[in-house]
Amino acid sequence: MSLRVAALAERLRRLPQGLQFIAVGGSAAATHLLVVLLLVGGAGMAPLLANVLAFLVAFGVSYSGHAWLTFADKKAPHAQALPRFFLVACSSFALNELLYYLALHELHWHYAWSLVAVLVVVAVFTFVAAKCWAFAHAAPH
């Protein structure tokens, strides 16, 4: 790891958890949005299908960042945290897709602005579920 990357990682680890969540979530959301824009604008894919593919790409960014940074102090084993966080992410995505559909087809908002609004709303649910359940270290039985 280069000195600049190590210095950046150390600064990120000193941020309050909420800001870490925003940094990781913002990176995942930017990834999600960029993939949708590329697939819709560049490949002519339907927005709702592009959103599914973008979710899968952004999940990798999100889980990695939250496991490494945001919830690293929880020390939840990956065998527990990964499937739980995937369930949280899928639940968040279902809410995302529903709200995105409503914004596109009922409100007739632009696909990009609709997705930005939806991603912000769903982030609150994701934080609470990830902190309180997905990355919560289970007590041994």
From TrEMBL:
<keyword id="KW-0472">Membrane</keyword>
<dbReference type="InterPro" id="IPR051401">
    <property type="entry name" value="GtrA_CellWall_Glycosyl"/>
</dbReference>
<comment type="similarity">
    <text>Belongs to the GtrA family.</text>
</comment>
<dbReference type="InterPro" id="IPR007267">
    <property type="entry name" value="GtrA_DPMS_TM"/>
</dbReference>
<feature type="domain" description="GtrA/DPMS transmembrane">
    <location>
        <begin position="20"/>
        <end position="135"/>
    </location>
</feature>
<keyword id="KW-1133">Transmembrane helix</keyword>
<feature type="transmembrane region" description="Helical">
    <location>
        <begin position="21"/>
        <end position="42"/>
    </location>
</feature>
<dbReference type="Pfam" id="PF04138">
    <property type="entry name" value="GtrA_DPMS_TM"/>
</dbReference>
<protein>
    <submittedName>
        <fullName>GtrA family protein</fullName>
    </submittedName>
</protein>
<feature type="transmembrane region" description="Helical">
    <location>
        <begin position="48"/>
        <end position="69"/>
    </location>
</feature>
<keyword id="KW-0812">Transmembrane</keyword>
<feature type="transmembrane region" description="Helical">
    <location>
        <begin position="109"/>
        <end position="130"/>
    </location>
</feature>
<feature type="transmembrane region" description="Helical">
    <location>
        <begin position="81"/>
        <end position="103"/>
    </location>
</feature>
